[in-house]
Design brief:
39% of the residues lie in helices and 16% in strands. By secondary structure, the protein is an alpha/beta fold. The structure holds NADP nicotinamide-adenine-dinucleotide phosphate.
Length: 291
């Protein structure tokens, strides 16, 4: 039987409707609608599409959004000044700096300049530290999207063997951390799983992946995960978003559908969940700033 399709588009729509309702209550209470400032440096076509989609999702949820397009050669000082201004604006509850940045900009310095209380991507070291300690202020968007996808489709992670392939700061590393963390009142998305974090130096990747009851690929190599690498009946999430001949494809080979119990598609899987979690974080930041 082919794998069940984990429909991220539908799940994200449900989450977005929940956010619409929470935003409406907030506004009816006389509070500011949440607001997200998006900074887009240069003219990377994929970045433009991502930012457009994120802003459209904000508007549909009743979240205000502002776009700050900057020239590819913007001096770092100007970008840092803009972030400082946005940090000080009480109507801004989230700052999104779309990555990648042009090479002349110091990505770490730029991301560290975002006030941690409105760091809705959860990239700031303070927020990474809080997450690691089990007291998250925000959950990072793509890892949270993966966890929500599992929760909302009834896949329990507690006690499961989970393999995450890819250890980037944006996806793999925080995802593995969230999966491994203890589930508590302060950390409801803790996965309580037994986690292996694989990467380019992992020996016998196929063997490691076959141990997984839940396998998550966040690599950026089209079709890397093939059917032989998947334990029969496993749940497989494909985070990859790779452009091949103008078509968006994941890190998981289509043949995996014949072996897995369920599989998230690309497109329409983890991608829409990531956007929904960005909205969630922007609303959460506004709620936390209310006190
Ligand atoms: P990244 O920063 O390039 O990291 C890739 C990771 O994969 C690295 O840890 C790397 O190992 C590992 N890797 C590379 N080749 C490998 C191989 N052959 N075997 C095992 N591990 C290998 O990428 P990223 O930002 O995490 O993104 C990964 C993918 O997810 C991309 O396709 C990206 O477009 C997509 N993505 C999707 C979303 C979404 O919302 N769906 C969000 C973000 C990213 P080393 O650390 O050893 O180099």
């Amino acid at each position: 039987m082919p794998a069940i399709r984990l429909d991220g588009k539908l799940l994200a729509q449900t989450i977005r409707l929940e956010i619409v309702a929470r935003v409406a209550v907030r506004v009816a209470d006389g509070k500011h609608a949440p607001g997200l400032a998006a900074i887009l440096v240069g003219d990377n076509p994929a970045s433009h599409v991502y930012v457009r989609n994120k802003r459209k999702a904000c508007e549909e949820a009743g979240i205000r959004s502002w776009l700050f397009p900057l020239a590819a050669n913007v001096p770092q000082r100007d970008l840092l000044n803009l972030i400082a201004e946005l940090n000080a604006n009480p109507e801004v509850h989230g700052i999104l700096v779309q990555l990648p940045l042009p090479p002349h900009l110091d990505e770490k310095a730029v991301l560290d300049a975002v006030d941690p209380t409105i760091d809705v991507d959860c990239f700031h070291p303070e927020n990474v530290g809080l997450l690691a300690a089990g007291y998250p202020r925000f959950y990072p968007c793509t890892p949270h999207g993966c966890l929500q996808m599992l929760r909302r489709t009834g896949v329990e992670t507690a006690g499961k063997e989970v393999v995450v392939v890819g250890r980037s700061n944006i996806v793999g590393k925080p995802l593995a951390m969230m999966l491994a963390l203890k589930r508590t009142d302060k950390n409801p998305m803790g996965g309580d799983a037994t986690v292996t974090l694989a990467h380019s130096q992992t020996k016998n990747l196929a063997e490691v992946c076959r141990r997984a009851e839940i396998l998550i690929a966040a690599v950026g190599v089209p079709g890397l995960i093939t059917a032989e690498m998947v334990r029969p009946g496993a749940v497989v999430l494909d985070v990859g978003m790779n452009s091949v001949d103008g078509k968006l494809v994941g890190d998981v080979h289509p043949g995996v559908a014949a072996v897995a119990c369920s599989l998230s598609p690309v497109p329409g899987g983890v991608g829409p969940m990531t956007i929904a979690m960005l909205l969630e974080n922007t609303l959460r930041a506004a709620e936390l700033l209310d006190g």
